[in-house]
Amino acid sequence: MNKLINHYICIVVFMIFIFLNFNIAKSATIDNIPAPPAGGPSMQGNFNVVGENVPNQIYEKYNNVQIITNGNQNSKQAMWWKNKINVTKAFTIKFYAYITASDLNNVADGITFTIQNDNYNAIGTNGESLGAYGNVRNRNYYIKDYIKNAFSYEFDPYNNADYSDNSLEDRLGNKIKGQHTAFTSTNSDEIEKLRSTNGFRQIHYDAHSLDDWPGIMYPKWHKFIYSWNPSKDLKKATATVNIDNSNIVQSHELDISTILNNDRQNPFAWWGFTGSTGLYTMISAIADTAVSGDPGITKLVLNLSKLSDEEKNNITEEIDKSKQSLKTKNELKKCIYKPSESSSNPDLSNILVSIINPRYFQSTIKNADLGDVLLYKVDIYNYKTAEGLGNDWNNVKVTDSDLSKIGMTSLDNENNIDATYDVIPPIDIDSKSSVKPSSVGLRTIISSPNGGKISNIRNNVVTASGSNFYGDNVLGADSNKSSIASVYVNKAQPPIKPRILIKNNLINLSDNNSSYQSNNTTLVDVSNYDSIQYSANISNIIMQSNTSNKATYTFGVPSLADNPQIILNNRKINNKISNISTYYQIQDSKDNRKVITIYNIPSIRGGNSAEIKANFQLGSKNPSNFSYTPYFTDKENSYYGSEENYNFKNGQIFFDYINNIDYGYKNSYYMQGLTSPAAIFSEKTKKSYIESDKKYVIAKIIDSRREKNSFSVYLSQLPIKQNNKVSEIGSNESPFELKYVNGNNISSLSPNSVPIEIYNRKYSSNEENDSIISNIFWNTNNELKLSNSKNFNLEKNKYNKRNYKAELNWIIKDNGTP
């Protein structure tokens, strides 16, 4: 029995072995390379690829994959990222590698990740030299075909024990006789002569057998994370590599001069990959998911409430020079001269950071007070290297921490920055072009005093992430590129001025298609007599402050059918004037619209708010659009909400009806000249039923627009969607075609014909703005007529009797636009 069990076990093991090797062999082509585990920057165009027998690529299939070897013999390739890295600074590069072969016992020769300061087209020898080193089987190793000033990490699936891998050991002195990984240097002083042969062996550092990562040669992607950390004196650096998040971390410390060749004035080097084959072959590819570069982010701050008169004047001059509208310029100036009362329009902050001189912003400001308005400026930059190389920073996401947690309240309706950029291109640091570091602005007011959980120092951190660079975030590190802006706040001293924040909202209750939105200030397709629900939250965001009990709130409406119903803090108020109680009044504005003001609003303490609700019905005489900005006034101070907009339905132009045109019955396919309906006779009566001298109304056009302008009507013929094309007037098989006659002008119609203008309506400035019915009349001088078709074969079709039809297409073009 035991022999039988062992027999079946042997069969199963043998079948598993066959299955694995069959699938490995099947996958050992570039066509069977699977999708990489993660996306990343495009290889094409970002890498400079050099070498011999460079294989065809699969960029269209996987844009972040580069094939290094495709199973051919005697090939070599090197690929260098177009953006150099600074080897005196820390960086991390993440990539995936795919290496396999049909015969896993003879996979050759390997790949490297290399940092070098040789040149953009550097490449070594093929075979065991992995496209990076020189020919170790030749005493002339250091004469040609090796990458100078380079440091590599090799993934070597073939042990060349006689030369390059001779006497290979791990860090404990144990012999490694097979596939391995290790750090190496390509320079000639990092190899040793072999006594028994006329060649060299490569010196390996922290070598590991591939047995440390079981299954690493099977056809799948493996993750590599390469980190570089310079010492404090910037003389040495430690390189570390981790594969597939294992607990094995390979590392080696080297002298940075190995790469820089003692040129510390230019600490930049190329980075990339090499690979090669010799007698044996392999399938290998790299998928880059993150690359290092020089992007960054800076957060600075300016206290708008503490600007000097000189600074205000300088900023005002720049505002006047800008291309902004007069209204926007005035709002920007208010942000400078009365920052605590300025509009809560977030666009103003973004404009300000682009106008204000950068030297006014600091990483730290002191002596800020409760109620001061701060302008934060975030610069997202992507500078090229010293060599002028760089790559786009794609899909950049910028966020910062919630300002409300450090006792501040945004004046831009958002308490943190949340910005997204599709691409931030690289620019020169001293670039004079219009492409500048992207800037985001955010105004906030210090709303809470010291004490409790809020410290005197208010720090705010901003982060940014993008698809072209490794890591979740890119943080500023230097004081002049800090991602942290600090604000020192003085102890609050009374009296403290309040700051009102208004959140107003509009809902059209008569619009069945409208949905409730808490921040809606624009209504579209409004009609006469619509019912409107209005609301406003008026909050005092400065703690330890109070408004008076004589404050007012004012908002405008386009018209009123009757007095509105107004509720303040859940209590209905009336329009009876009082010195004590809250009441409202309605006045006509300059353009005869209605302005509603609520008087004697009770005091609002810091941290509290007042709720206004109003329901009203619009009247009948409304403009095409109406806008008004509500405001809260307390003593000499005014605070504004968001602009409210009513866009009324403008009406439309449309056809009331269109008559069919019946040409009656005709015995012959042949006619003299052009024939009108009046010349065709009824099949039953043999008489014409159309009076030739009468005007027939073919179409009525209704123009219900509030604001009218000229329009034209065009006519064309459409193809009839049916199988039997013989029944279609104007087809090649039809005996007839249509002509449009307009006086002495004759135009042809046929299926898919060019539209012909048959009517033009021009309005004068003194016409009434009511609906106008415009009739299209047809008679003998203005009508469609039949003519014989030039393409019709009479002999072939003369015995056929058919009903011929045409489908007309009418187009109204409003002011030249369909």
What is the top-level CATH class of the largest domain? Mainly Beta
Number of strands: 47
Distance N to C terminus: 89 Å
Sheet/helix structural class? mainly beta
Q: Provide the CATH topology of the largest domain.
A: Jelly Rolls
CATH architecture of the largest domain: Sandwich
Individual helix count? 6
> What ranges have pLDDT less than 50 throughout 5 or more consecutive residues?
1-26, 469-482
Strand residue content? 35-45%
Q: Describe the biggest sheet?
A: 8 strands, antiparallel
Could you report the average pLDDT, rounded to the nearest whole number? 82
Gross morphology? flat
- Helical percent range? under 10%
What value does the Rg take, in angstroms? Answer: 41 Å
Number of domains: 4
Detailed description of the structure:
With 818 residues, the protein is mainly β. The chain has four domains: 15-290, Jelly Rolls; 295-489, Immunoglobulins (Immunoglobulin-like); 500-648, Mu homology domain, subdomain B (Immunoglobulin-like), CATH 2.60.40.1170; 653-814. It has six helices and 47 strands. The strands form eleven sheets. Strands 1, 3, 4, 6, 7, 8, 11 and 15 form an eight-stranded antiparallel sheet that branches. A six-stranded antiparallel sheet has the order 2-16-5-12-13-14. A hairpin with a 2-residue loop joins β42 and β43. α3 runs antiparallel to α4. The termini are far apart.
Element layout with pairings:
Elements: H1 2-27, E1 47-52, E2 65-70, E3 76-81, E4 85-86, E5 91-100, E6 110-116, E7 150-156, E8 180-185, E9 191-193, E10 200-202, E11 205-209, E12 222-230, E13 236-243, E14 249-255, H2 257-260, E15 268-276, E16 283-290, E17 295-303, H3 309-321, H4 326-337, H5 346-355, E18 364-368, E19 373-382, E20 393-400, E21 408-410, E22 418-424, E23 438-446, E24 457-465, E25 484-489, E26 500-508, E27 522-526, E28 531-540, E29 551-557, E30 565-568, E31 571-573, E32 583-588, E33 594-601, E34 609-617, E35 625-628, E36 631-634, E37 637-640, E38 644-648, E39 653-658, E40 696-703, E41 711-718, E42 736-742, E43 745-749, E44 756-761, E45 772-778, E46 782-788, H6 794-797, E47 807-814
Parallel strand pairs: 18-25, 27-38
Antiparallel strand pairs: 1-3, 2-16, 3-15, 4-15, 5-12, 5-16, 6-7, 6-15, 7-8, 8-11, 9-10, 12-13, 13-14, 17-19, 19-23, 20-22, 20-24, 21-23, 24-25, 26-28, 28-34, 29-33, 29-36, 30-31, 30-34, 32-33, 35-38, 36-37, 39-40, 40-45, 41-44, 41-47, 42-43, 42-46
Helix pairs in contact: 3-4
